[in-house]
Structures are given as C-alpha cells and as structure tokens.
Amino acid sequence: MSNIKHRKRGELIIISGPTCAGKGTIIRHLLKKHDEMTLSISYTSRPMRGGEVDGVDYYFVSREQFEEKIKNNDFLEYAKVRYGEYFGTPKQEIEETLESGKDVILEIDVQGAQQVKELFPETILIFILAPSFEELKKRIKARGLENNEQIIDRFKTAYKEINEINKYNYVVVNDELEEAILKVESILIAEKCRVDRIEEIAVENEEEILHEFIIGKEFDNTPVDYNKDTK
Ligand code: 5GP
After folding, report:
1. pLDDT digits over 114-171, tens only?
2. Whether the CB of 60 sits within 6 Å of ligand 1
3. I need a labelling partner for 105 at 20 to 30 A (CA). Which of 112, 157, 168, 206 fits?
C-alpha cells in the first residue's frame, strides 16, 4: 500500500529521575535488549567510587580538566549536579552516534535535560519515579554507601527534581521493575511510529493498484473501462 521511509538518524532519549528511582537498572535492561541503543558516557569531576570504572561509568577528570573542556566547547550540556561537582555530556560522540542511526540515551539530571531540550526540541524526555518518598527513603538507606549529610543531600535533590517533572514528556513509576521497563520500551516504540518522525511515505500509484486488482494483470497504460463487467 505504501512504503514508509523512517528517518535514518537515531533518536536522542533522556532518562532522568531522583536517586534510587532505578534509572540505571532500567537503562541496563534496555541496552541488553536493543542493539540500536547506546548510552552516552558522561564526564565528571566527582571522585570515582568503589566498583566504578573509568570510561565505563564516567570519564573521571579533575575540575581543571573539566573546565578546560567547557572552554573548548566540548559539551552538549553540563551542570553542577551534586556536592558542587561537574557532570557533562560530550558533544562529538553523540553527534556521530546519532548520524550512524543509533539511538543515544542520556542519563542526566533535570538541568542538563532542559539544556538539551532547548538545543534539540525533538528529544524524548522520560522521568523515572520511585513509587513513594517512603520507598525512596528505604532505597537510599539500603544502598548504605554514604554518610548522613550525603543522604540528606540526595534526598533534597530528589525533592527538587520531582518538582521539575512537567518539563518531561513521560513519567514512569518504577514500582515493579519489569513493568517499568515495558513502559519505557513502549514509549520508545510509540515515539518511533510518530508521523513527524517519518521522513517520507511513498504511496503506490492508485491507478496502477486499481488496475491490477480488477484486471489481475500488469499495468500497460491502455485505457480500461472498469465498469465493463457490471454493464
Ligand atoms: P551519581 O553518579 O553521583 O550517583 O549521580 C549523578 C547524577 O548526575 C545523576 O542524577 C545523573 O542523572 C546526573 N548526571 C550524570 N551524568 C550527567 C551529565 O552528563 N550531565 C548532567 N547534567 N547530569 C548528569
């Protein structure tokens, strides 16, 4: 009936949400299942934590190195997210990956999301929420990684971020992990079917189709009386 030509360029997807909402776990599942998706690795000036790997979790750099990169205009966006430390999305890699047709996921905070949305209004913005503040408190404590001051800081940031939810296109509550993953996947599938994301729809020649349907043979440009049989 028609030939739909999807845009070759990949989609830019932002996944944000308060600490311990489960963004990382959801993203890991998506990446395992979808070869066409990649995760952008950010730069940060914050110290590396135990178990983290440079070039996998982040590119860990000093503040001076980060500021040098700001000067060089190397970031698509950057922000001071927590404890005054910088986090930033590298520009060049993303542009190249999108051009190659792969989707790029950015796991960034609300300040960064806002900057990217202004640059690329078509970005798909998804906010992941924990089911309640009580549950969030439990998850933060269960991580048991940080001191009280840092826990309070995480909680305050979470509270602030939740108030920014209206800047996003979608919100997914991560109560049941499987269900949350399915919802994010469904959002991305639906987004790709949007008419404004299609480059071209080539509808086949109506006269040709009608001819083949009624006459049952190749179209040869000879004028045909379609009402012949019904006369
Ligand atoms: P952490 O890795 O310290 O647990 O949390 C990092 C926080 O910074 C998360 O909220 C994460 O979404 C955000 N973040 C990570 N990378 C970037 C980035 O490149 N840009 C911005 N704006 N935020 C980031």
Report:
1. 999 999 999 999 999 998 888 888 887 787 766 777 778 778 888 888 889 999 999 9
2. no
3. 157
